[in-house]
Design a protein that fits this description.
The strands form 2 sheets. Strands 1-2 form a two-stranded antiparallel ribbon. It has 19 helices and 4 strands. It has a single domain, classed as Amino acid/polyamine transporter I. It is mainly alpha-helical. The radius of gyration is 22 Å and the shape is globular.
């Protein structure tokens, strides 16, 4: 799930926005503010503008989805659920994801700010619903980061030794890596972007290399591999035994996180245009990676062996393809995937928190920006410390580990909820255009509503099939958000709740 140092104030008919047209490079001064709904000011931009390009922003969004870990956790499950038709199911899932990404793009053209859906939903539908959207974004990224502790320690250790180091080794590795990524996050978005690009090049090259090698072994009918058939490229799978519904549930989960391109939008060149483009590019490239890796590696071993090693499927298939040494290379790629996702979680969550705190929807100190680094230091430190604390609790408090695992497992559902709310904000804000133009009726009305309906179906199916502990955890997250909302409204007296509903004035 941007920075606010700006050059001039921009005014928009029927309301105001944080920035003017991207082609003019219009931004606000740190002392100025435009009006929202007439009387409620938008916080001034104070973070570093034009710091990164669209390519770097795309990588940040992809890193947030953690392709290596996502495939590692779902390769066996997706093969079983779809009867080896995972590739077509992933492509099918890409369609609603691209529609939602386009919704993000259009809303970012309205107003580019690091609060993103928090502010879009709040200003177009309801500030109360906007606050809950912001809370769900924070909860999703924090729980998603903590879920990486399950794989980061073992995979880092596997690079140097095949023997697991135990709980304290995992804790030590996770803590050191989180602190390192926190330092990078505080030091600036430029360093963060360079670090993410370097890790992405290595991770994706390893994944692609193994995918191609595995596919060649399958096509050559190497002993021990599972033969490829035309049914791999249907939605029903081998023998028609695939479950499209089950496959879609998994596919939606692995895409979660591409929206990270929008939370650094105030730091991207042409911030009203490029972050949305980066979101669409992230979904497209993730689709290519997922289809290639899953199709290439799911047949590298027999179905029985793949399911028997479901918890470490990528490392196991890499060992089958190239031996123990190459298995360590894959473990290294997985470690990079988790490290990159941890870094982006800190950066993106800090900016969401910063955006909310700028309206005093969260404590005002969290909106402080370092004059030296132009980053929201307080929000970044809070995010890093939360990840470290929750990691320790997860790994040490065995008595509550089951309940904590249930919370971690709902991160995909949380992403789904605020994707739906963002789609609805698009329809609401652009409602005049939808009623006036057939093309806009399709792209800003029918398609976002269809994508929201699809994700709603996924959420309902997930809730129906999930253990009771996960559903209780989802309810707990929502109730916590309501408590924080009451605190922000009556304790902090946030001006955000005085915002009136807005819409695009142009038909």
């Amino acid at each position: 799930m941007g920075q606010r140092k700006s050059k001039s104030e921009a005014k928009v008919n029927g309301g105001a926005a944080r920035s003017g047209p991207a082609t003019m490079g219009v931004q606000m001064t740190s002392q100025s503010a435009a009006a929202v709904a007439g009387s409620v000011p938008v916080p001034a931009a104070r973070l570093e503008p034009d710091a990164i390009g669209v390519a770097q922003d795309t990588v940040i969004g992809m890193a947030s989805s953690a392709p290596g870990v996502s495939v590692g956790l779902t390769l066996a499950a997706l093969a079983a659920a779809t009867a080896y038709a995972g590739g077509p199911v992933i492509i099918l899932t890409a369609i609603p994801m691209l529609i939602i990404a386009n919704a993000y793009r259009r809303l970012n053209m309205w107003t580019a700010n690091c609060g993103a859906s928090f502010e879009w939903v709040g200003r177009s539908i309801s500030p109360y619903l906007g606050f809950l959207t912001g809370w769900l974004m924070i909860a999703a990224y924090i729980t998603g980061a903590v879920s990486g502790v399950e794989v980061i320690g073992p995979n880092v250790l596997a690079v140097a030794s095949p023997h697991h180091g135990g709980t304290w080794a995992d804790i030590g590795i996770a803590t050191i890596i989180t602190l390192a990524m926190l330092v990078i996050a505080v030091a600036g978005i430029r360093l963060t972007a360079r670090t993410q690009v370097a890790m992405a090049v290595i991770e994706y090259a390893i994944l692609a290399g193994f995918a191609v090698a595995g596919l060649l072994l399958v096509l050559r009918h190497q002993p021990g591999t599972f033969p490829i058939t035309a049914r791999w490229f249907t939605l029903s799978g081998i023998g028609g035994h695939g479950s499209l519904a089950a496959g879609l549930l998994i596919a939606v989960y692995i895409y979660s996180g591409w929206d990270g391109t929008l939370y650094v939008n105030e730091e991207v060149k042409h911030r009203r245009l490029n972050p949305g483009r980066a979101a669409i590019l992230a979904v497209i490239i993730l689709t290519v990676i997922y289809v290639l890796v899953i199709t290439g590696l799911q047949g590298a071993v027999s179905p029985a062996r793949l399911q028997a090693h479901s918890s470490d499927a990528l490392v196991y298939t890499a060992q089958a393809v190239g031996g123990t040494g190459w298995a360590r290379v894959m473990a290294f790629a997985l470690a990079l995937s988790v490290i990159a996702a941890t870094g982006t979680s800190i950066v993106l969550t800090a900016r969401i928190i910063y955006g909310m705190a700028s309206y005093r929807a969260l404590p005002g100190r969290l909106a402080n920006v370092s004059a030296r680094f132009a980053t929201p230091v307080n929000a970044s430190v809070l995010t890093g410390l939360l990840i470290i604390t929750l990691t320790w609790v997860y790994l040490l408090a065995t008595s509550i580990k089951g309940a904590f695992t249930a919370v971690v497992n709902i991160s995909g559902l949380l992403f789904g909820v605020f994707y739906i709310l963002t789609a609805m904000a698009t329809v609401t804000y652009y409602r005049r255009r939808i009623l006036a133009r057939p093309a806009d009726a399709l792209t800003l009305g029918i398609l976002p509503l269809a994508a929201a309906a699809f994700l709603t179906w996924v959420l309902v199916k997930s809730i129906q099939t999930a253990p009771a502990s996960q559903n209780w955890s989802l309810l707990g997250v929502l109730l916590t958000g309501l408590i924080l909302l009451v605190f922000a409204r009556y304790g902090l007296r946030s001006r955000f709740f005085a915002i009136a509903r807005e819409s695009d004035p142009r038909p």
